[in-house]
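Deviation from plan, reported transparently: iron/sulfur cluster complex.
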Amino acid sequence: MKIKKNTISHNRVAIVIETLEQLQGTPQQKHQRADPLDMLIGTLLSQNTNDKNSHQAYVRLRKKFPDWKRAAEAPVNQIASAIKVGGMKNQKSRRIKKLLHEIHRQFSGYKLRGIERWENKKIIERLTSFDGIGYKTAACVALFSLRREIFPVDTHIHRILNRLGIVQTKTPDKTFEAMEEKIPEGKSYSFHTNLIRFGRTVCLAQRPQCGICPLFEECGFSEKDKFVFRKQTPAKRRDPNFMLLDEI
Ligand code: SF4
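Because the crystal trials were delayed, the predicted structure below was used instead.
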């Protein structure tokens, strides 16, 4: 079923945002903004791995190549060796090298020059034109580095918003489109960050903790009653609040 953008209730979104802030606090962005290209490559490294491993991969990559020119000129196997800890080293190293070459060609240097002045639509269009860069990665650059009102959607956010019944969509990209302009002003970062934390501790993919969930009454998940009587303890993760993109 194709969701009409105007069918999403702003009120329900606001209730969920407020509930998550009561449960987990209101996350604040760091004072210092990361360079957009650093953020783009950091987000690319985070694909299909956890934040801890991708953070390690990013730190090792920057240690080996303190500037992007050196990475662009290095053999691809050297990039692969630096990012090995993050997984998919061959695919990601090829993508990074190709991305750096393309950025150098289009921007005459290793900077996304002028991106701060672009509208969100242009940021998404230009960044997703690069090989291997999708909506989520492009939106992360806009939110985390450029501090835009934009709401990146990963698989976890997609899952939770569908369970809650806020969207009925098949893919994270469709959820991203459906949520466009549905987040109250100033709440994109808080909502994005809190949904990720919530998905790590309560609304888990395989065993959602519905019995202890403060959104139970709000939630439209058809199987929620089935999960209520399962053992309910918040998932133990060493650091559920660690967010790679806050560390770039
Ligand atoms: S009730 Fe269950 S499925 Fe719904 S949001 Fe809470 S944990 Fe997730």
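The first helix runs from residue 10 to 24. We consider this an acceptable substitute for the interim report.
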